[in-house]
């Protein structure tokens, strides 16, 4: 007996015509889009996502450059053509653009199956840049002078205060009637502090490089306060600078500090 091709008036072959589009799977309620299936994300959304990823990784690169400038000053001279502030602003700008483009790409693909894959690289870059910037900020606060510094000539006689004082008198071209040595018992890590008003110089020596790194900012801040308080005093006029060595620093007039740098080495820094 021939088998009928109709059931309730419908062809059995309609089964194949009524199947859902590719990318759907059967469920208890019917058919639902399969993971990664369904209508693809529009090319525009994908391109926006790619630009978001690009700017995201550019922000990571900016944070890396800032980290190098703060933690390894002088190691890559090419980066120092622009200040740390410029690199920081550039990194923040790229991060903000990446975030906006990421949001835009997600919105453009909100009804598309597979939209979670749009700008996923940008999301990773944004998170990585944020975490990395936090680490750089923490490390720069712990090591204000950097972790890796280029080798600098250092010939200061820090083991003998008399030699330090004689050397400074020679460079300044003035003989000090009295070197005023300060009590440093309340400052662990500080070996000696002395100043000479005749030569307009003062020096600080430290027990270790770590102690020097910890106290430098404090010393410079105190010098700035003294110069500000005595701005009307003729003795405080002129350009002031500081020469930093591994375990010492000397403050004085810029022309004298330039000569001192040539004689003892170290690095010269202007006091603003």
Order of helix and strand elements from N to C terminus: EEHEEHHHHEEEHEEHE
H/I helix tally: 7
Q: Which residues sit in consecutive blocks of at least 5 with pLDDT less than 50?
A: 13-18
What portion of the residues fall into strands of 2 or more residues? 15-25%
* Neighbour order of strands in the largest sheet: 5-6-7-9-8-10
Mean pLDDT: 83
| Biggest sheet overview | 6 strands, antiparallel
Task: Please give the number of β-strands.
Answer: 10
User: Approximately how much helix is present in the residues?
Assistant: 40-55%
Spatial extent as radius of gyration: 34 Å
Shape: elongated
Name the descriptors:
272 residues; alpha+beta; six-stranded antiparallel sheet; two-stranded antiparallel sheet; 7 helices; 10 strands; 46% helix; elongated
Explain what this protein looks like in three dimensions.
With 272 residues, the protein is an alpha+beta fold. The protein has 7 helices and 10 strands. The strands form 3 sheets. Strands 5-6-7-9-8-10 form a 6-stranded antiparallel beta sheet, with helices on both faces. A two-stranded antiparallel sheet has the order 1-2. A hairpin with an 8-residue loop joins strand 5 (180-181) and strand 6. Helix 2 (43-71) runs antiparallel to helix 3 and helix 3 runs antiparallel to helix 4 (120-142). The protein is elongated and about 85 Å long. It starts with 5 loop residues before the first strand and ends with a strand. The model is unreliable at 13-18 (pLDDT under 50).
């Amino acid at each position: 007996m021939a088998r009928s091709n109709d059931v309730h008036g419908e062809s059995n072959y309609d089964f194949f015509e009524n199947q859902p589009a590719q990318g759907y799977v059967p469920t208890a309620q019917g058919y639902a889009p399969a993971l990664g299936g369904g209508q693809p994300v529009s090319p525009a959304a994908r391109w926006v996502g790619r630009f978001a990823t690009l700017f995201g990784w550019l922000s990571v690169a900016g944070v890396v450059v800032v980290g190098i400038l703060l933690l390894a000053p002088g190691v890559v001279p090419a980066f120092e053509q622009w200040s740390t502030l410029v690199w920081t602003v550039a990194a923040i700008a790229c991060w903000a653009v990446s975030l906006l483009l990421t949001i835009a790409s997600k919105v453009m693909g909100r009804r598309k199956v597979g939209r979670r894959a749009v700008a996923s690289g940008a999301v990773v870059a944004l998170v990585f840049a944020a975490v990395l910037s936090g680490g750089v900020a923490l490390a720069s606060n712990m090591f204000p002078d950097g972790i890796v510094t280029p080798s600098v000539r250092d010939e200061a006689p820090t083991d003998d205060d008399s030699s330090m004082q004689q050397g400074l008198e020679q460079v300044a071209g003035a003989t000090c009637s009295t070197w005023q040595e300060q009590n440093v018992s309340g400052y662990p890590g500080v070996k000696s502090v002395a100043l000479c008003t005749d030569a307009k110089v003062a020096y600080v020596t430290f027990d270790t490089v770590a102690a020097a790194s910890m106290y430098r900012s404090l010393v410079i801040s105190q010098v700035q306060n003294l110069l500000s308080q005595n701005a009307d005093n003729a003795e405080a006029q002129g350009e002031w600078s500081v020469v930093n060595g591994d375990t010492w620093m000397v403050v004085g007039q810029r022309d004298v500090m330039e000569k001192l740098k040539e004689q003892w080495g170290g690095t010269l820094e202007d006091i603003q």
